[in-house]
Input
Amino acid sequence: MAVYKDAAKKTWFADIRFRDESGKVRSIKKRGFETKRDAQSWEKDFRIERGEINQRYTFINMAERYFSSRKGYANENTIQQKKARLRNYASELLNEDLPIPAKKLQKWRETLPNFGIATRTMNSTIDIVRAIINYGYVDYDIKDTAKSLKRFKLTFEDKTEATVINPQQFDQLLSFIENDTLRKYFEFSYYLGTRRAETRAVLKSDIDMINKTVTISKSLPHGAIRSVDGLSNLKTPKSHRILKMDDELFDSLKPLLKTEGPFLFGGYEPLADTSITRHFERAVSMYGGPRITIHQLRHSNGSLLLDADVPLITVSRRLGHSSIDITSKVYAHALRNIDQKSADAINSIRKK
Output
């Protein structure tokens, strides 16, 4: 709730913002409360009188209010991703009345490992649920029952470095992708290191036929409308980049450029996220190489470039990292290989 302490007067005051009948945001401030609870009680009475609190709230109602409050603070892409996680992994909570009993929240938490998702994804979903319920407590005085909802501990596998595959293994993987558009989608991801949502968002107009480049400037996150209206800007300026394509990749994309529709991969509408996942996981289960995720195609690209002695700063720029420090941390394994190459080079020089 919007209650603060007046340090000078050693009292509490309530500072409330609300919309009037015309929709205009107004504020009212009430001072002089001896305790924080008195100020909160006054605010609650004010909101009840306005009809804001005297009603039934479900989790999904509060979630919408929470996400609306985050606009201007969080990227729209991020908000859509969080909404998608709730739909995918917390659907059983959506229509529950608030406050949700703590035992019911704990029971929901116990179902998360059944989805077969990464520990970090489970923890991110828990964080979203906790944030929404806390928002209900702070702004609507609804009991916070999620305080005891704990995150999962990272496993050894979570902490180890990402799996990467070499071009030979990738070709073997591609041989089990039957759909030509999907095969080229994964080839694009592997050899350019683009993020999943970035690859889905590529338009034919982003391809420069003369210079053999592609402009990466948009994102189409999971759960977004499958049309150009669903496209959103990338999070950071450095995510915007122009990537030079190798000749083989460029040539493989030419047939797609001749099809109808704005999207490079899909035509009139982008490839469905579920379809991308289904075909990829089927191929991974059949090709006989290391188990790998779609995102690890991006890691494979970074490792491939570093192993080929491409400067770290160039790799960082191609991947759209916000800083070179991120690249250093993510590709520590590849940098160790470079360090060995450096030592070998010194050995060779000194032996001459």
Remarks:
- The chain has a mean pLDDT of 86.
- The chain has three domains: 3-49, 59-154, 167-292.
- The first helix runs from residue 36 to 49.
